[in-house]
Structure formats: structure tokens, C-alpha cells
Amino acid sequence: MYRIGIDLGGTKIEGVVLDADGQEVVRKRIPTEREHGYQHILRRLKSMHDELAAAVKGPTTFGIGTPGAISPRTGLLKNSNTVCMNGQPVKADLEKMLGRKIEIQNDANCFAMAEALLGAGQGKKLVFGVIMGTGCGGGIVYKGEVFTGAQAIAGEWGHMCIDPHGPLCYCGQKGCIETFISGGGLEKRYVEKYGVKRPLKEVEAAYFAGEPQAVEFMQWFFDRFGRAVANLIDILDPDIVVIGGGVSNFKAVYIEGVAAVRKYVFTDELQTPIVKHQLGDSAGVLGAALVGI
Ligand SMILES: [Zn+2]
Q1: Number of domains present in the structure of the chain
Q2: Which of 225, 244, 223 is nearest to 233 (CA)?
Q3: Cα separation of 142 and 148, whole Å?
């Protein structure tokens, strides 16, 4: 059985076919062209699927990974950054177009699935994957399967509040984890604190060079990271936490950040590995293939 996976993003649609051993046999990439609207995106997804299916001989499974989630209550896509797709019955429409059953999963869940089965979490029973990029998403994989929850929000730790007086989040609440420790959140907080925009890479380099302002900012970040991840471990106690997204490139996260987790977690000795992803940008599309039906 071959596995077709498509990662639907705001700017590109990436597709892959995996063989039975999880090895990649085909990969393709086309622009999303979301400015042409919902029906156009559906047609692009169909043509990508058809091309991938034609590239291999034999039966296939099919999964799509995308930001947002299909509401189990309404069957409509919600929380997508490709806003023309929100409120649309994407799954039902595509199933009709393609004449087959498909699975659609949140991109963070796909990331967690790929890292659990093919990346840093291989061999672990309970994997929590977090993406600290523009926003802050998360996914739970238990025994090789995504755990989505009753309302399809399991793993959405980015919108847990760690400060009720904190900054306003796009979700309408204040002080969500995302507003502090996502790449986008960190950039905003830096501007707020110091009045200048500064690339995070540069802030980290200045931190290692001992610049007082950067040290202060990074220590503030480690503290928030520590609280956020400690809360998560207190509830889920996963076998591993795998980090993706731009912030995962901070080397200090795995030293000082983890030290802060150790400080706040409800155990005398933190044993949970907190590690960087292994699959890079490919995790989304590989995960989409792995969740397919
Ligand atoms: Zn929020």
C-alpha cells in the first residue's frame, strides 16, 4: 500500500508518496493560488492527488495536513489561515470530487505524527509535538496514532493562558502561551519591551555574547517556556517532547529552557527528553501521508 500525503499551506501545496516502508518515492510542489478562491484550491488539490496516485501502481491511502481543523460538530473547516477555506465542508467536497474517503488533519498533528513514526520520537509511546513558529501549535500521538480529542482541539496548548493580564491573542483571550513563546509572539514582545524590531536569531547571538538586554529578554523567554512546557508535562506526561518551527533553532531552548521546565514541573527529577525535530520542513507532508486512510 502506498501513502499519499498533501500539505496544504497558504502559499504552497506539497505532495508526497511513501511506500510501505515509509520511504519517499515521489514529491511535488505547486503554488496554492489562494487568491483564486475555494473552488480553485479544491481543483488544485485534486490534480495534485491524481498526479501522485498515477505515479505509483497499486492501492493508496490519502491524507491532507493543513492549519486549522475540521469541526466534528459541523464538518466545516475552522481556524485555517487560508481564510477562504474556513466554514467550508472541505472534506466532504474533496471526497465527492475524488470518489474516495480521505483524512484531513491539523498541521501540528501531522508534524507530531511524522516525528513520532519517522523522526525524533521513534520508538516512544506518547509523543507531544509542538510547533513554535508564527503561532504555537501542538499535537499528541499515542501508540502511533494522532489523538484528536472530542472537539478536535487536543494538543492545542498554544492557547492555554499563563498570564490573565498578558497580551491579547488573536483567539480573543489574553496571555495565551502563543503570545509569549511563538516566534511571532517573541518578536512582538521584544518590540514592546525595547521599542525596536530585532530578528530573533540576532537576539540569541547577543544573548550568547552576554549583552544585558538580550540576556534579560531570553531569561524572560526561558521562564515562560518553562511554565508552558511544565504545565503540559504535568497533564500529559509524554515520553518525549519534540519541538519544531523557527524557535526550535534556538540552541539555548534545550539547555536554559529545559532548566526552567525542570524548575516548574511537578516531579523531583525531570526525565522527559525535550528535543529538536529531525525531519525539518518535511514533517508536515510526511505526517499527512501517515495519517491517511
Ligand atoms: Zn490564544
Answers
A1: 2
A2: 225
A3: 10
Largest CA distance in the chain: 61
In CATH, what number is assigned to the domain containing residue 204?
3.30.420.40
Q: What is the pLDDT of residues 153-188, one digit of tens each?
A: 999 999 999 999 999 998 899 999 999 999 999 999
Looking at the structure, do residues 144 and 90 belong to the same domain, yes or no? no
Closest CA to 232 of 165, 149, 158, 288: 158
Q: Write down the pTM of the prediction.
A: 0.94
Q: Are residues 143 and 20 part of one domain?
A: no
Query: Does one domain contain both 58 and 155?
Result: no
278 C-alpha to center of ligand 1: Å?
27
Cell of 264: 516548574
Same domain, 90 and 26: yes
239 CA to middle of ligand 1, Å? Answer: 26
201, containing H or E segment: helix 200-208
